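Morning - beta-D-ribofuranose inputs below, output right after.
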Amino acid sequence: MRIYLDCDTGIDDAIAIALLLAHDDVTIEGIGTVNGNTSAVQASVNTRGLLRLAGRDDIPVAVGAGRWRGGADAHGDNGVGGVVLPEGARPDPRTPEEMLIELARGHPGELVVIATGPCGNLAAALRNEPRLPDLVKSVTVMGGAVRVPGNVTGEAEANIADDPQAAKEVFEAAWPLTLVPLDVTMQHRWDERNKAALAASRNPLNEAIAAMLPAYFDSYEPRLRFREVPLHDPLAAAIAIGDVTPSEAPDLGVRVDVATGRTEEDPKARKIRVVLALDEPAGPRIRELLIPQ
Ligand code: BDR
Ligand code: CA
């Protein structure tokens, strides 16, 4: 399976990258970064550092453009909880949208696109290559809050709120789109035991993720009242590659309100597949992928 990952690395993006790297059937053909949890430039530094830890400097990383909104959030000052990663390979000279278009044209009908950050690069690629929806196999976006409250405002989720116009374009494009919103991601979490297992796994990438997790726990603990973190991005990645199977994923019309970043059901909107529930907890499965027994 050929993957293009678009991300704003980010602690849970880092877990998604580790999950994709761990999967035997998956080839990450390229990664693009976008402004979100941190700047696209810092997200690229983080991504390339993670790839260096995994011994995968061969995977090209393209850096997104535009100005970041700024501000530290759940992911700490550098996006990865203040953890200092090794310097990675040089970034790819292409823009993320150029990389995505090239990969889609090079492997027509094969490319599995996963977006774990705001949708700006995907929207730019759609504008530059109107045939893109016919060229890719599938698109999976972590984002939105369809039947539950948002996480940056009462109604909006971070990835959509950061670039609602881009999300609108991605939701309206004629490609097979799966949305993995907070409705399901908030239900699948890791706790301190998962962190301890990663720290003890004798794998540099897992150890780095374990070092990032305290910042993520700290940010969620006041909201959840448990020392747990939701697995937003790795869940989207696991669903995209078919490793985790949804039990409830109806085709719903979903509209993006550009003014507020809200994702609301609207029967008149283009129908997309919206993952609302899984049969089994995904946390143990994601841990097992990172720490094979
Ligand atoms: C999404 O926003 C970011 O904080 C996370 O990395 C995830 O992609 C959750 O709302
Ligand atoms: Ca993310």
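Note: The chain has a mean pLDDT of 97.

O.
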